[in-house]
């Protein structure tokens, strides 16, 4: 694995909130709020190299050129469903970012991802694209999502997940060595059903209250 492309979060606030998400007693409402908060905290780190441009601003004292982020240059792309839970957390930081969607679900038997929806902001080529999914398990969904984005012309891609398994992190970074990957916590391993251990269960079900 290329250590330069992997960013594992160490901030105590992120670790604390992830621990609360893991707890099986945490209900849908609180789980959703925590997902959003962790996304915001991770976004602060993942967006530290967003391009700035000087714009003219008049202060109470004088007019000056001062740096600002252009939301037009950022696209966030949640992987449906669970990635949706992270969108508002990033939009809290960059409200004018464009939002694309990629619909993927894992087959319960084979654990392979299947695409059912893809709509990306156009043009995509010059934007920084942040793919959102709370869980990186086998890595199949993340690899497929980055494949789609590259096929549509996306170049500068970041992937952000709240929990990763070593197996998925290895697969994603080896398949796409040119992307940056941000991980809230790196867990121990996958179980026989390809769930992350200790993990937090099924992120989509916990965010949307299904099962
Ligand atoms: C979950 C999760 C990821 C995927 C990770 O989605 O949100 O997209 O599994 O697993 P992988 O790394 O092995 O591909 P799921 O397929 O359960 O769909 P959902 O979000 O609609 O519940
Ligand atoms: N998807 C989830 O939501 N949880 C896991 O542990 C693995 C894949």
In short:
With 211 residues, the protein is α/β, with parallel strands linked by helices. The protein is 31% helix and 31% strand. It has helices at residues 12-22, 28-46, 84-91, 140-151, 166-175, 203-208, and strands at 6-8, 52-58, 63-69, 74-80, 98-99, 101-106, 113-119, 128-132, 135-136, 156-164, 180-186, 189-190, 196-197.
Describe the protein's architecture and organization.
The structure is a single chain. By secondary structure, the protein is α/β, with parallel strands linked by helices. It has one domain: 3-Layer(aba) Sandwich (Rossmann fold), CATH 3.40.50. Helices cover 31% and strands 31% of the residues. Helix 1 runs antiparallel to helix 2 and helix 2 packs across helix 3. It is globular, with a radius of gyration of 17 Å. The model has no long low-confidence stretch (mean pLDDT 95).
**What is the number of domains?**
1
First and last CA, distance = 35 Å
**Total DSSP E strands:** 13
Largest sheet: 9 strands, mixed
Mean pLDDT: 95
Radius of gyration: 17 Å
Alpha-beta content class: alpha/beta
Describe how the helices and strands are arranged.
Layout: E1 6-8, H1 12-22, H2 28-46, E2 52-58, E3 63-69, E4 74-80, H3 84-91, E5 98-99, E6 101-106, E7 113-119, E8 128-132, E9 135-136, H4 140-151, E10 156-164, H5 166-175, E11 180-186, E12 189-190, E13 196-197, H6 203-208
Parallel strand pairs: 1-11, 4-5, 4-6, 4-8, 8-10, 9-10, 10-11
Antiparallel strand pairs: 2-3, 6-7, 12-13
Helix pairs in contact: 1-2, 2-3
The structure holds 1-O-pyrophosphono-5-O-phosphono-alpha-D-ribofuranose and uracil.
Uracil binds at residues 82, 135, 137, 195-196, 199, 202-204.
